[in-house]
Amino acid sequence: MPFTLHDRLFVLTGAGISAESGLATFRGSGGLWNGYRVEEVATPEAWLADPELVWRFYSMRRRDALAAQPNIAHIALAEIEQQLGNRFYLCTQNVDDLHERAGSQRVHHMHGTLFESRCVHCNVPFPDKALYTAATDLPLCLQCNAPVRPHIVWFGEIPLDMEGIYRELDRATVLLVVGTSGSVYPAAGFVHIANQRGIRTVYVGPEEPLNAEAFDETVLGSAIVALPTLLKSLSS
Ligand code: OAD
Question: Would you state the CATH architecture of domain 24-67+115-152?
Fold first, then answer.
């Protein structure tokens, strides 16, 4: 048993946890969008060069996420949170809202959220589920008329509330990582921080991540099978 109900659990999720809900991962098969790699559309440079392309990409992702439903891996995390209360912290790299829709309360979206936008000038995020797919359609700020961008952390930008993340990681006793390839930092480095602090580390996913050697334990399998089994064994 990698951990018990007395532990303080820090969970990091990636695209893999939403894969069985029908949302494509970034680096697997189907990881391309219209022939673009994510690094080509999720950058400040892409936004400056072609905001219409960037908005088409995020509009498609909004549409797909709206149509998707949480799966039993999302639900298993929401259920274990009920038992652990504030000894549970969920940090996700995902920008979909499937954790919230499964019932998770303590979710931090370190890479931003799909259903918020913000003015590039005012910088205040606001709820936004609209799809913007044509150049003539692109949103402008109602206050200052500057362009409105997705509230997403792009490559080269700093993830949200890193201070809060490190504080939670510092006091955790277990780091559970689910469905991420371990290729994007700083999230891929959480396991190394955990190792320095003596925190136990477990990875769940169908294949080994790039940083697999850093984990104490790897449970190979789809999140919808492996995660509920792992978490159920805690409460029995
Ligand atoms: P990746 O697409 O890099 O990796 C997805 C991972 O999910 C892989 O390791 C798969 O093995 C795993 N996977 C696939 N199916 C699964 C399943 N059914 N159950 C569990 N795991 C499964 O996605 P991330 O690691 O999340 O950043 O990508 C990290 C960041 O790179 C994203 O947040 C995004 C992206 O570019 C930004 O947009 C800033």
Answer: 2-Layer Sandwich (3.30)
The catalytic position among 74, 99, 109, 111 is 111
Give the per-residue pLDDT at 1. Answer: 62
Residues 185-199 pLDDT 10s? 999 999 999 999 999
Cα 214 to Cα 75: distance, rounded to the nearest angstrom: 27
Distance 188 CA to ligand 1 centre (A): 11
| Distance from residue 170's CA to the centre of ligand 1 (Å) | 24
Unique residue bearing structure tokens 């979710």: 107
111 counts as catalytic: yes
| 228 C-beta closer than 6 A to ligand 1 | no
Integer Cα distance of 15 and 188 in angstroms:
13
Point out the least confidently predicted range of 19-28, 62-71, 128-137: 19-28
44 lines ligand 1 (CB under 6 A): no
Q: Whose CA is nearest to atom 26 of ligand 1?
A: 14
Quick one: tokens of 44?
A: 């400040």
The tally of CA atoms less than 13 A away on the side-chain side of residue 43 is 11
Mutate to test the pocket of ligand 1, among 20, 26, 29, 158 (most ligand atoms within 8 A of CB): 26
pLDDT in tens, 80-100: 999 999 999 999 999 999 999
Domain chopping of the chain, boundaries: 1-23+71-111+159-236, 24-67+115-152
Handedness of CA 47, 49, 52, 58 (dihedral sign): negative
| 236: pLDDT strictly greater than 60 | no
For residue range 12-35, list pLDDT tens digits in order.
999 999 999 999 888 866 666 667
